């Protein structure tokens, strides 16, 4: 019975990772955080 719970947790982690990369790819994220912000 615990096997399906472990598989479900793994699938949830994979889905979260997929959605995060789809919404904000790592390269794009790095490019955005490395730019300086001028509030002046």
TrEMBL record:
Protein name as catalogued: Uncharacterized protein
């Amino acid at each position: 019975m615990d096997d399906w719970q472990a598989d479900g947790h793994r699938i949830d982690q994979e889905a979260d990772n997929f959605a995060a990369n789809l919404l904000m790819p790592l390269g794009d994220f790095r490019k955005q955080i490395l730019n300086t912000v001028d509030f002046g």
